[in-house]
Design goal:
CATH class: Alpha Beta
Largest sheet: 7 strands, mixed
CATH topology: Spore Coat Polysaccharide Biosynthesis Protein SpsA, Chain A
Helix content: 25-40%
Number of domains: 1
Strand order of the largest sheet: 5-4-1-6-11-8-12
Structural class: alpha/beta
Number of strands: 13
Amino acid sequence: MRAILLAAGLGTRLRPLTDTVPKCLVPIKGQPLLDIWLQNLTRAGMGPFLVNTHHLAEKVTAYVRLSEYTDQVSLTHEPELLGTAGTLIANLGFFGGKDGLLIHADNYCHPDFSEFMRAHQQRPAECAMTMMTFRTDNPSSCGIVELDDRGVVVRFHEKVENPPGNIANGAVYILSGSFLQTLDAEFKEVTDFSIEILPLFVGKIFTYEAKNIYLDIGTPEAYLQASRRS
């Protein structure tokens, strides 16, 4: 299965580290974050991959060229950031009309992608995608989802005080081919996947809970935690 990895963010909360290192290449015990994603995905039989670049793009390009995944990775440079939905919509042809992965590659995790794929294949018929979720110790800092008894999203709570639960959106999705066709036909002008698209599909988003470590390394504290727990 093909995957788009969103890796072009500025990583402002991790400055000064990200003044010289793109966020997708910050090391977790010596291994670049993007390398961890590509390693885990390749081991699960996923690929090829499309990675967008912007901040310190030349360093991402140099990493890809020298990595063992170079033959599997295509790069698309964004002189101006397109946004999470904008990048997806601009590159819909990459999926060739088939189901595909959309990954916010600024998180650190080791999910079971084979189980994730099986969950997607067994999703309720009305569901257009499958979202990876995780349980967070700090719900007010995350996008929290409420689920029905089948594991389908019925409500979103985006970084609110005292949300009802601790199951968070992991920002990793398997998108069905039919959903991608809908994006191409109806959502060409949107830029933000979480804000402008996901709320319109409540009741049509299946979920899979990642059981292993899952961290947004957007802050120095979380980055340190990831380094300690890996």
